Amino acid sequence: MGKTTHYKAKIPDRDGIIHYTQEENATWKLLIKRQLKLIENRACDEFLTGLDQLNLPVHYIPQLSDIDATLNSTTGWKTERVPALINFDRFFALLADKKFPVATFIRSREELDYIQEPDIFHEIFGHCPLLTDPDFARFTENYGKLAMGASSEERKYLARLYWFTVEFGLLDTPAGLRIYGGGILSSKQEVIYATESEQPLKAAFNCLEVLRTPYRIDVLQAIYFKITSMGDLSKISQSNLLELVAQAKALGAYPSLYPEKKTG
Ligand code: HBI
Ligand code: FE
């Protein structure tokens, strides 16, 4: 990992405060006001509860310490300021230590609708609300602990598990399909596409299937996997994942569902 970014990480002053420009705060305001409307009746209850608890500001980019206060009081998690995408070793070690990496830059207006790398809006709005949920938090921590000790070959498979849950997971509820994946919840286009388009496949979550399914990071997803409760995630992380990875490896990956070769 550790792909170079063209964004510049924002560094805190000696009091730990990150100073954002008016333009950067206005970008946050544009993004959060738009996303709050889009996720109505589409985000899962656990996400909405976490969003309420975080009580994110609308007019300016929050300080990580504000986010940490809520995460700490709910699940003992905290954020970890990072410059941008970080490599697998550091990423998994942070999750194992109940620390979620948050890049401190925010996307430019040119990339308002879609940014390939995770900026502060994706990480805070997309991921932090669910880190207040005990099941989701436990899954993420267990996932980090497991992936820390995994080989680079095994990590290729485990990245798919992260991708189809934490990033692009769907929840089948009695009230209908809801979103819990942060990659969807922070995306203007994908919130509607994932819940209303007939185009993507929406399969019941099956860990072995997920581990065999390649993905692409730069397009709308061709397939989503649906769990039926956040408790499913805890069970997944307590199953013998490395055994399933070995089975997935022996069975081989499914053909890519995308036209080109770039898959995860
Ligand atoms: N780094 N900062 C940051 N944020 C992420 O979400 C992230 C990362 N590095 C690796 C990574 N995600 C993915 O490869 C996961 O699928 C493992
Ligand atoms: Fe993410």
Notes on the structure:
This protein is of the alpha/beta class and 264 residues long. The protein has one domain: Phenylalanine Hydroxylase. It is built from twelve helices and six strands. A four-stranded mixed beta sheet has the order 4-3-6-5. The protein has a two-stranded parallel sheet with strand order 1-2. The chain binds 7,8-dihydrobiopterin and fe (iii) ion.
Tell me the layout of helices and strands.
Elements: H1 22-38, H2 45-54, H3 64-74, E1 78-82, H4 88-96, E2 99-103, H5 120-127, H6 134-148, H7 152-167, E3 170-173, E4 176-179, H8 182-185, H9 188-196, E5 201-204, H10 207-211, E6 223-227, H11 230-238, H12 241-251
Parallel strand pairs: 1-2, 3-6, 5-6
Antiparallel strand pairs: 3-4
The protein binds 7,8-dihydrobiopterin (HBI) and fe (iii) ion.
The site of 7,8-dihydrobiopterin has 11 residues, from strand 2 and helix 7.
In short:
This protein has 264 residues and is of the alpha/beta class.
How many separate domains make up the residues?
Answer: 1
| Number of DSSP E strands | 6
Average per-residue pLDDT, rounded, comes to 95
Name the strands of the widest sheet in spatial order.
4-3-6-5
The coarse silhouette is globular
Tell me about the largest β-sheet: 4 strands, mixed
The helical percent reads: 40-55%
Provide a count of the helices: 12
How many angstroms does the end-to-end distance come to? Answer: 12 Å
Using the coordinates above, name the CATH class.
Answer: Mainly Alpha
The fraction of residues in strands falls at: 5-15%
Bound small-molecule species: 7,8-dihydrobiopterin, fe (iii) ion
